[in-house]
């Protein structure tokens, strides 16, 4: 998940580590706290794999005004996605297996980069996530019906709260799926081949043609077996 999120952010623009960590917090939505102790080892591995490159700052250049504490004279190292990194990101963004939606945290990251995801892939991921959540809902309902008489009202309220949360997610996913299908239908309709254009009307006869026709009269066809005479 961390590699996918880093590649997705660097696909949008190069960033230094401080900005990258801040953007990761927005993408993950508080699902996971990313420390420098986990971020920089990941960046080091990705650089060794050729997925990203670094732009070392000039050691003699002045530090920017917004440099974080303890930056030192080295300034900020800027990370940029490479061609191999873009290829890796597109491979990851096209995956539609259970790993894309069974885990809630990874699904949230995938959703954050839906703008880079093909429409049919988005739809399969959303449908897979909805199936997963619907199974969770059925499990909660079954558990609630079995344990209703064994727990106190506070435990039951906690279970009801969990069931309501899952119900809301199912409705939310259904709305996203309906929206994706409408957009797909609109795109398909827009790509339909237009109907055949009507045949152009025959040009109106000129005044000379009308005069010649009136003076000659109706043409007579040749007799049977006779050649046509001009």
Automatic annotation (TrEMBL):
Biased composition (Basic and acidic residues): 179-194
Biased composition (Low complexity): 195-230
GO function term, MF aspect, one: DNA binding
Domain Transcription regulator PadR N-terminal positions: 6-90
Keywords: DNA-binding
Superkingdom classification of source: Bacteria
PANTHER family assigned to the protein according to its UniProt record, in alphabetical order: CONSERVED PROTEIN (PTHR33169:SF26), PADR-FAMILY TRANSCRIPTIONAL REGULATOR (PTHR33169)
Protein name, as recorded: DNA-binding transcriptional regulator, PadR family
Source species taxonomy: Bacteria, Bacillati, Actinomycetota, Actinomycetes, Geodermatophilales
């Amino acid at each position: 998940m961390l590699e996918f999120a880093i590649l997705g952010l660097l696909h949008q623009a190069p960033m230094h580590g401080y900005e990258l960590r801040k953007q990761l917090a927005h993408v993950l939505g508080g699902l996971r706290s990313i420390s420098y102790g986990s971020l920089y080892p990941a960046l080091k591995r990705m650089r060794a794999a050729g997925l990203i490159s670094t732009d070392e700052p000039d050691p003699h250049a002045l530090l920017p005004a917004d440099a974080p504490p303890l930056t030192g004279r080295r300034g900020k190292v800027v990370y940029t996605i490479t061609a191999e990194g873009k290829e890796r990101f597109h491979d990851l963004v096209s995956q539609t297996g259970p790993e894309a939606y069974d885990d809630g945290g990874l699904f949230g990251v995938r959703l954050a980069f839906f703008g880079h995801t093909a429409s049919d892939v988005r739809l399969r991921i959303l449908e897979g996530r909805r199936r997963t959540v619907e199974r969770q809902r059925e499990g909660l309902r079954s558990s609630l019906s079995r344990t209703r008489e064994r727990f106190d009202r506070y435990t039951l309220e906690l279970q009801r709260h969990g069931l309501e949360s899952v119900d809301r997610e199912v409705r939310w996913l259904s709305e996203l799926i309906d929206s994706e299908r409408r957009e797909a239908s609109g795109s398909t309709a827009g790509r339909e081949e237009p109907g055949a254009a009507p045949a152009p009307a025959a040009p109106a006869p000129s005044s000379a043609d009308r005069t010649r026709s009136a003076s000659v009269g109706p043409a007579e066809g040749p007799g049977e077996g006779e050649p046509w005479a001009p």
